[in-house]
Amino acid sequence: MHCFVAKQAILDSDGKPLGYELLFRTSLENRFPDVDAELATRRLLAEQFLSQKIEDLVAHSLCFVNFPDALLREGLAESFQQQQLVIEVLETAIPDQALLNSIKSIKKLGLQVALDDHIPNKIWDIFFPYIDFIKLDLRQVSMPDCRRLIERCLVYPHIRFIAEKVETQQEFADSKDAGFHFFQGYYFQQPQVFSRRVLTTDEMAGFELLSFINEEIIDYDRLTELFTRDLTLSYYLLRYVNNVNSGYRLQSIDNLRNAIVFLGEKQLRRFAAIMMAAYISKDKNVELYRLSMIRAKWCELLANKVCPNLQEDAFLCGLFSLLDVLLERPMADILPHLSVTDPIRQALLEQKGKLGFLMGLMQDHEQANWSMLQQRLDFINLTEQDSSRFYESAIIWSQIIND
User: Fold this and answer.
1) Crossing angle, helix 220-228 and helix 231-244, to 10 degrees?
2) pLDDT tens, residue by residue, 196-225
3) DSSP 48
4) pLDDT in tens, 81-113
5) Strand pairing of 133-137 and 112-115?
6) Domains in the chain and their CATH numbers?
7) How far apart are CA 320 and CA 293, in angstroms?
8) Which among 103, 208, 230, 265 is least surrounded, fewest beta carbons within 10 Å?
9) Which pLDDT does position 249 carry in this prediction?
10) Which residues of 246-273 are buried (b: 16+ CB within 10 A; e: fewer)?
11) Cα–Cα distance measured from residue 214 to residue 272, given in angstroms and rounded to the nearest whole number
12) Contacts for 329 with CB less than 8 Å, ≥ 6 apart
């Protein structure tokens, strides 16, 4: 799933970025879509701050985000304690005591607040002790009025002024002369639209399951609750139990907890990893998921022959080896969200260590690099027949699991 966002730089007088205003988009078309402003802000926050790292989009710069009045009053801003986030209070906000209380609460969390498209009016003066930035639209406020407000706010030295819609060199020069600290507008940069890959609900459920199961002490009640609210996950759990032990049959969903306990920690971790890979592969290239499953079993069988103590790690290493392709993100960004061992991390990031060697062996086989494959097989005293037999066994296993 892809989301879209536009960002426009806010610069100082030397052209160094203070931060970026983030603007909601639903496509690569650079215009605000026909959606409710509150919905736009909710989606922007979820897609840019919750589903992925905001640093990938803006590094360590500030992020200015519009917050409609209703969202400030319901406390949405207080749910996002991101130190890079600057809450923009829109010009349509009602400057009453309730809004002031909301801004005070935001400030207590260490967040910064900006008055966006501000129209000078003394009714806002009681807010100034809690305001970090005031943005003035040069198309709405004359330069003399801008200058008067900036001079009046000299008693609030913490407030910094941002000139919006700076479109010419003359407007830039006049803004600096009026006392503005920062500048935003087409003279510097038009909003740039970016497409970003975000996790779907299914993918997040897969990561959540793996996180639960990799805790030092598994909370079976919490785990059962997760399965209970995801019917698809429950269905696959019961099928997996039947595959592990065909003599064990569960008749109703009331036995979910029994099924979880029956599997044991090792099989639970394997099931969680398989489900995460399945959810990530959903509605994508089915062949990539099939290859992930084959690699998992194949790597495990090779490890059993070469490094038996790494069998379980080998299975996960093979299973996760295509996550970067499936998620369209670098492996280095994905692994921090997974509880994997150092041998797995080393193999997937650098193709080093014993597991990295096995990953190279499988890739040589897949790419028909026969001379290099033979060198690897000779190094670990494995015959070509053994290697082919492990590969064929892995294919059969993957077909059984997905049957």
Assistant:
1) 120
2) 766 666 666 666 777 777 777 878 887 877
3) I
4) 678 899 999 999 999 999 999 999 999 988 999
5) parallel
6) 2-197 (3.20.20.450), 202-281 (no CATH), 284-403 (no CATH)
7) 9
8) 265
9) 47
10) eeeebeeeeebeebbeebeeeebbbbbb
11) 9
12) 197
pLDDT at 30 (0 to 100) = 66
Dig out the tokens for 317 from the structure: 């290493």
pLDDT in tens, 32-88: 777 788 888 888 887 777 666 777 788 888 999 999 999 998 888 887 767 889 999
Rounded Cα gap, residues 378 and 365, in angstroms = 14
Give residue 163's identity as a one-letter amino acid code. A
Supply the DSSP symbol for 47.
I
Q: Is 97 exposed, middle or buried (0-12, 13-18, 19+ CB in 10 A)?
A: exposed
Give the Cα separation of 396 and 59 in Å (integer).
46
- The structure's pTM equals 0.58
The CA angle 337-67-106, to the nearest 5 degrees, is 75
Q: How far apart are CA 97 and CA 127, in angstroms?
A: 10
> How far is Cα 212 from Cα 220, in angstroms, rounded to an integer?
9
What the block records as the tokens of 333 is 């960004």
Tokens in use for 88?
């923009």
Residue linked to tokens 């879209």: 4
DSSP H or E stretch at residue 88: strand 85-89
Tokens of 33: 């879509």
150 and 161 in contact (C-beta within 8 Å)? yes
How many residues comprise the chain?
403
Other beta carbons within 10 angstroms of residue 384's beta carbon come to 13
